[in-house]
């Protein structure tokens, strides 16, 4: 080929390539209702789907507990490196925060948790947990895979993003408040809104659920040591019996919900453990009780009343009581409250992606999620993505028989991407209206 011809040929080729690339990505700028389906097509392609499945299985084989997710974190970083996404790490020991887009405001965040549970997997399959006594039984392996799938698609469209998508891979959701630590280490810096998605076998495959306002309760724990004076069980007058005191305390604690709470405001006080004594004929020196509280409102007051009831009831029975509201360093969680505008956006994305009937209005439950810390700090939205298939009977989360229906992964990735892209688009259009008003 002559040099001139070669020059012309290569110019034409480059122009064609440019046209192809721009027509491929321009749909983000087009009809907003088409965006979820376009991303779903992309997420279902072998390039994205097989990749997500591979990642999920790899994480499933090597489950790591809260703040120990070193290999999981390394895997996330190496996959982000491969697709060219910049990130900050470590955040909160093992956390990773990726950034895709302009690097400028507005910033919108997508969150996945990374930790496993201290459960021995009972499912026999090719990619069963290789670590005895540890298992991904809450689907967090799937959450990481879906967010990486979203990262891959967002990275392909990074030039069309009207702001920056922040990918939050957080440690220690299961009881160790990883989200709180991520926030303390600046995960939400400049971020305006955040979305979280949890896989669930509570709802069928093809359904997604959330609600506006309170969706999950705040939770906390308490432990108390009631101390008296032990002695012979047949000579109680020479003892100060902590067993009777503890029994009275357990009953009195039940009045906090039944007698002091508005019946229309849901609260739970459960005493779930009582330890004391180990002989039939000996009154012990002390008894330890412990339990959990759940509430949507008035959390601090409830904690205060628990402390009062325990210490004062102990006094009635001539005992002393010490109360710990953070036993074993367990943090309390605020309730998870969904922002109304983000909830509306989620409903529309679900409708566009899964059809008119796919959205389920979730009734609030007394379970908790540490996503609540994010949603407390900035507008946030937490949702559930169903994956139940009655013919296969997937077990509920935190069960040793728990399984993830991997067919759900492209839907989760597409929801993540659509929520972020649509948020940025809406924000840009609002800003342009505001600035045109400013000009007037
Ligand atoms: Zn869990
Ligand atoms: Zn979970």
TrEMBL record:
InterPro entries: Amidohydrolase, Bact_exopeptidase_dim_dom, ILR1-like_Hyd, Peptidase_M20, Peptidase_M20_dimer. Residues 1-23 form the signal peptide. Coiled coil: none annotated. Its cofactor is Mn(2+). Keywords: Hydrolase, Manganese, Metal-binding, Signal. Mn(2+) binds at residues 138, 140, 174, 198, 398. The Mn(2+) ion enhances activity. Pfam families: M20_dimer, Peptidase_M20. GO terms for molecular function: hydrolase activity. Residues 218-310 form the Peptidase M20 dimerisation domain. Belongs to the peptidase M20 family. This is IAA-amino acid hydrolase ILR1-like 1.
